[in-house]
Structures are given as structure tokens and as C-alpha cells.
Design brief:
Its EC number is 2.7.1.25. It catalyses: adenosine 5'-phosphosulfate + ATP = 3'-phosphoadenylyl sulfate + ADP + H(+). GO terms for molecular function: kinase activity; nucleotidyltransferase activity. There is one protein chain. The protein is an alpha/beta fold. It is 33% helix and 18% strand. The radius of gyration is 26 Å and the shape is globular. It binds 3'-phosphate-adenosine-5'-phosphate sulfate and adenosine-5'-diphosphate.
Amino acid sequence: MTTEAGDLRDLPSLTPGPAELADLELLLNGAFQPLTGFLGAVDAATVAAAGRLADGTPWPAAVTLAVPEDLTKEERVVLTDPEGVPLAILHIAETWQDNVSPAGFPGGDPLRASETTSWHAAGRVETLALPEHGTFRRLRLTPREVRAELAGATTLALATRGPLHRRHLGQLRQLAEKLDARLLLMPLIGEGHDDALVRALLAVRRELPAGTLVVPVPLIERPGRDLALAAHVAAAYGATHFFLEPAAGAEEAARAGAQALPLTSGQLPIEPVTPEPWAYDESVEVWRPVSKIEPDHIRPEPTEAELAAMLDRGEKIPEWFTLPAVAEELRRANPPRHERGLTVFFTGLSGSGKSTIARGLADALVERGGRTVTLLDGDVVRRLLSAGLTFSRDDRDLNIRRIGYVAAEITRHGGVAICAPIAPYAATRAEVRRMVNAAGDFVLVHVATPLEECERRDRKGLYAKARAGLIPEFTGISDPYELPDDAELTIDTSQLTPEAAVERVLDLLVAGGWVRSE
Ligand SMILES: Nc1ncnc2c1ncn2[C@@H]1O[C@H](COP(=O)(O)OS(=O)(=O)O)[C@@H](OP(=O)(O)O)[C@H]1O
Ligand SMILES: Nc1ncnc2c1ncn2[C@@H]1O[C@H](COP(=O)(O)OP(=O)(O)O)[C@@H](O)[C@H]1O
């Protein structure tokens, strides 16, 4: 059954999250063929366990849609983009539930690690319109368009979340020649702001054979399944071969644990091609196959960690290693730490000293100059940004997510956000760390003043009220505080002056390079 335009008004609608919208785009444009919709419980389980749909078709990753419970009674739901433009009708064939344990809570109090359940809807998606949001839209060709462009040529696809350096370019040129293949570069753009990645790939195109295509793919990272899924997308685009670095499978597997699928030709829809090792030959100053270089002429290339450290310190990425245009994109995406956006996130009990230290830090940074500083204090946020929220778990989480969202935006724009809420839940703090890290750096400071000292201070008389049972759900008394195990700094203020506490944070920021020493 297809849906008439007039019917749309009467159907309930849902705007999926960014990850699900990315999947929807690939379902609608055919890049996820043979899938025609979101998976049901059995398919999701067999894909997770064995990399196959229930009918045996190889498929590497679960493509699922979470829905609020009230939509599970519906037969059809309109899926819209973030602005409310209808993109598709989901014909619901099945609704199912799974249990998600809160992440980032290792070894915590089992009483507090309550499981949450989420509903999913499965079924075919009927296209209404292809999405129009997102950067580099003109490059995001559909599989049909890419296949038409490739016209049946042997094509080597490369999917990547990082830029290509001179070694990759040499290897690609060699393979393209050997296979007599066209090249298809697929920057995998996730939820973040990956425009720098796309620009970095566009910048290397002129070093590659004519006709090399760059097609950004909105593919959310799925550790352990990422490359296998990208290979399926490449196959849908008409590629015949898939570039796989020798260590790619192993690295992915290590990151994802036992969940990773093997990246062998039996598991992939197109032929994996592993380049031969290349290195920089110092004696002639060119990149070439290792087999052609005297071992003592090989100059080791910087590791990812070394590159990141160079960028942190604002050092030039050497030209022998990467093209200047790529280095410039890397620098723009990762400015030196003293210019990079930063969130300093204080967490701790009420009265532990968060606001006092946060204010002192903000003043000290403003006095030093060179940084724009925004203070998002717990009390102040609750009067404005989070006015009306309670202290239930859900409302606390929403409060912290709002703070995290604002902090991430400040960070993205190169500012310093200083946050000082209680933030009692580890999983929510971890979520904020992830949000901010997509934009810049995140430093967690646990103000670990013992409860007895906070209660002794009781500046606002709240502990006395909480003890008297007048405030239900008071953190530390009748509501949980999950101790951080990932804090960059822990400060107990019971034996410390406020000035000394601020100094500790400043020392950390100076040592880390975010703030220049005076
Ligand atoms: N039930 C309950 N539990 C904890 N705190 C309470 C509660 N009711 C009111 N207050 C006051 O609200 C401040 C904490 O707000 P936060 O936004 O930081 O809390 S949370 O992060 O959302 O948990 C906190 O301020 P700080 O003392 O600055 O931490 C308290 O003054
Ligand atoms: N080293 C210290 N750092 C921060 N606050 C301290 C310190 N020593 C004593 N205090 C006092 O503890 C109280 C902390 O209150 P506040 O900063 O509002 O905490 P919170 O924001 O965590 O609720 C203030 O009265 C502050 O003067």
C-alpha cells in the first residue's frame, strides 16, 4: 500500500535522532540495499550475533529505529527531518523492546544501575522525499547516480573517517593502476561536524587519477561493524573492490571487542584489496613500496598519537608526511590547545565548592585574557535554561544534557565553558563528555568534598531540610551521587582555601596546554 499525500496530515509523525536520520537517508536512497526498512527483533539479533539477517543474507550491522511507546500502536508513522519536512512513511510491521544498561557505570552500585527499556519499530520505509539537510549535499550522490557515473568501470572504493596522507595516496595510485580501476573516496560523516574531513579528501583529489569521485556517506560509526557496513554501501554505489589497510580489521576488532566481524572476502560483498606496505624513503625523499627501500632509509611516519600531540602543541605537520592542504584542515579541526574550545565540568555534592571554584576559575581566565569564558553554574542554569525542571532522575539528566549542549556549542566556537552542576549520574556525564569531545576538549573536575563537610557548611540550610524529610530526593541524603572514575582532577576542599582550589585547576589547565603559563 502506498500513501496519498492527503493522508499524511492524519498520520502521527516522528523526527528520528541524527543517527537514525542518517540510516534513513541510506535506506531511502538504496545505499543499504537489500534492506528496505528498519530491522525487527529477530533480524537485529542475528545481525548482532552472526552478521546475517534471519533469512541468511549477509548484513553486518543492526539498522533500527527507536520510537516512543505511544507510537507502537500505530500502523504507519511519518518520519520527518529536523525541520519537520516529511521524508518517509514507516509501515510498521513489528514493534519490539530491548534492554539497554546505562553506559559508563562500571562497578557501580547495582541498585542505582537500573536498566532502561526502549521501544523500536520495524518495517518498510516508503520514500516521500530525499533529505535535503546536511553539508556537502551536492556531493552526496545516490547509488543510482554514482553507478551511472561509474558506468560499470572497475572501481576501488575507500571508506574513511580520517584524512589521507601521502602514503595512502601512493598506495591508491598504485592499486588504481594495477586494477585499472576508478577510485571512489567515501568520507564517512557521522553525527559530528565532519566538514573538515570532506574538505581534506577533496584536497587530495588532484593527486589521484582523473575521475576520482568523492562521495560523503552519512554513516554513523558502529565499532566492529563500520568497515563491513561501508563495504556494503560501496557495493551499492557500484564499487567492485574495497580498500582495506592491513591492520584495519584488527584495529576495529580491538576497539569493539568480540563483537567485530571478520573482514574477509567471504564476509564482504565486494573484493577487499590490501595495499602493499609503503614508507618514506629518506635517501630519495619519496614515498614508495617498502620492498624498494633499504631498511635504514625508511623514515617512520608519525603515529596518530604523535600527530595529535603535534596539533595540540600547534606544531607544523611535516610536508613530507601530508599535503599542506590536509595539514591545514587538520589544524583547523584541531587548533593548538591554547586556542581550542574547552569545557571544564565540575561535579560534586551540593556545598562541595563547585560554584566557588568555578567562579574563581572564570575570573582568573578572564584576568589572563585571550579566552572568552562562559560560566554555567548549577543554580543559575536552573533559574534560566532549566527553569521548571525538578530533581527527578529524568529532569536532572535533561538539565545536564542542556548544559552539555550549550557547553559543546561554546566549545565548538573556541570558547571556554565552565559548568558547575551536581551532575550525579555517571552515564549522563559521559554523554556530555562525548558531546563536547566532538567539538573540542573536556576536563572533568570532581569536587570530592566529603558529605559531612558539605553538610557542616550547609550554606543554604538545604541539608537540614533534607534530613528533616522536607526535601525528597536530596543528593547525598536521599538521592544517589555516582562517584566519577574518569575525573581529570579530584579536589577535596575540606582542607583547602578556595584560592588554592582554583590554583589546582589552573595548574592542570596550564600543564595540559589549554592555558599559557604566566
Ligand atoms: N533535591 C535536591 N537535590 C540536590 N540539590 C537540590 C535539590 N533541591 C534543590 N537543590 C539545589 O539545586 C542545586 C543543584 O542543582 P543542579 O542543577 O546542580 O542539580 S543536578 O545536576 O541537576 O542534579 C543545588 O545547588 P548547589 O548547592 O549549587 O549544588 C541545591 O542548592
Ligand atoms: N577550598 C574551597 N573551595 C570551594 N569552596 C570552599 C572551599 N573551602 C570552603 N569553601 C566554602 O564552601 C562553600 C561551597 O559552596 P558552593 O561553592 O556554593 O558549593 P556548590 O556550588 O558545590 O554547592 C562556600 O561557602 C565556600 O566558601
